[in-house]
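hi!! sorry for the late reply, been swamped w classes. u asked for the two structures so here they r. pasted raw, havent cleaned anything up. first the sequence of the first protein and right below it the tokens
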Amino acid sequence: QVQLVESGGGLVQAGGSLTLSCVASGIIFKINAMGWYRQAPGKQRELVATISTGGTTNYAESVKGRFTISRDNAKNTVYLQMNSLKPEDTAVYYCHGVVRTTYRSYEDDYWGQGTQVTVSS
């Protein structure tokens, strides 16, 4: 089994910053893409940012220039540095990983339990 555990959420004023972390643990052969998604109340879950094993990144238009995704492959960890936060960034943020548990296995999708980010105006 693979577990993804997020940390770093909280309450921050508009214009402030937060850094989210997500550590993957368990039976892991290789982690391919990792990313962050978010879901606000009454809305669908949406992509925030993704990063490949080699470091290629992709961002939602709404966070470009404000958020930075990074990863430490040796630690099976992905980060999301969030600057210039806005009230509309308020959501539960979920970590996602595409993981192979053995060299023979196919890739599978894993999700963290989510961490709340609240931005006050």
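now the second protein. again sequence first, tokens right under
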Amino acid sequence: QVQLVESGGGLVQAGDSLRLSCAASGLTFTNYRMAWFRQAPGKERVFVAAISRSGGSTSFADSVKGRFTISRDNAKSTVSLQMNSLKPEDTAVYYCAARYGDNVGQYNIWGQGTQVTVSS
């Protein structure tokens, strides 16, 4: 059974840092490009960051560039999102996602999400 399980969400103040983790199981992790998305209340789910299968290439939404970093540990089948200088507008449910290969395609494996709330 393929599963992505996020952890690390919580309530923090503006300017604080938070690290999200996603543990993958039931798949060959190194075959999958990994990403984080987020969905704020009343809004669509949007892309936050992605990392290639090897970890050698990353991409970020403009809104988080310079504040967030994404990394993966292929030995442990985990992907992490380090979030620094958090802002109230970062408040959302954060989802881990996976898609096969590094070519263009849809993310089709999703975790259940973890809530991040940033107070001002």
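hope this helps!! also noticed smth abt the second:
The two ends are 40 Å apart (CA to CA).
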